[in-house]
Design a protein that fits this description.
The chain has 76 residues and is mainly alpha-helical. The protein has 3 helices and no strands. The chain is rod-shaped and about 65 Å long.
């Protein structure tokens, strides 16, 4: 995946995760008709997009710092 697509995916996942956190901890789940079901759905989205956000941090920062095996062999 290209750097631009990785960045867009990371930002999208980060926004969804922040919205889920705000709904759970700041707004509260009492505004929904079925708070238990809403909490289940929102937490599921939070876990999924949280993992995508962690992957995005890894891909956008660590992949640039860690050299691949081919790059290390080409240096010698």
């Amino acid at each position: 995946m290209s750097y631009r697509n990785e960045r867009i995916l990371f930002l999208f996942a980060l926004v969804i995760s922040l919205i889920a956190l705000i709904l759970i901890y700041i707004v509260g789940l009492d505004i929904f008709a079925q708070p238990e079901q809403a909490e289940y759905v929102i937490r599921t989205l939070l876990y999924l997009f949280g993992l995508v956000s962690i992957r995005g941090v890894w891909k956008l920062t660590l992949d640039k710092k860690i050299k691949s095996k081919e790059e290390r062999e080409n240096e010698h």
